[in-house]
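Q: I have 198 residues here and want to know how they pack in 3D. Can you give me a structure?
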Amino acid sequence: MNSRITDIQSRILALQGKVGAPPVTSAPASSSSASGDSFASYLQDAVSSGTGTVSAAGRNYTLNSKGIPTELAAYGNGKIPRTALSPVGNTGHRLWAPAASSLTSLMADAKKDGVTIGITDSYRPYDEQVDLAKRKGLYSQGGLAAKPGTSEHGWGMAADLDLDSKGLAWMRQNAARYGFVNNVSRESWHWAYKPNGA
């Protein structure tokens, strides 16, 4: 449900940018933009879609059937050029554009709540995945690394966060609103971006 709310919020922001008007929430549901799109139709589309489309910064992105960003899939896991990824605020880390945008917002909102969330790792090139597997062992064998070429980090879809107990509690309570899930049971620091339940 939280991912649907995030998607609806993204569509509202996109509509606001398209219309160039005051916030959509203050406009009647029947009002239309110059192109004939109404808030009601955007809302209905957002609620019913679930097609793997993700909005960020006024642009739509898509995920393939495996939950991999379609514009990055052709590069391969861990082989994505830096220019195809987006910065996460001013951290020096990069992720897939919607994940970077969402994590930047998450960190800013946590800061407003007095919680500091840092990043220790984000996009991970293939060579680093191989090195990590050698040093920390494969997760399937009790270690801490995904099989090289399969890592969520290699798609720019995960970040390892620097979390104290307050930060971890904040993430557990709020991360889903931003599309992030802690999906590796032995790694409280690993948060993957799973928009629309991908």
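Q: Anything worth noting?
A: The CA atoms of residues 87 and 94 lie 4 Å apart. Residues 2-19 form the longest helix (18 residues).
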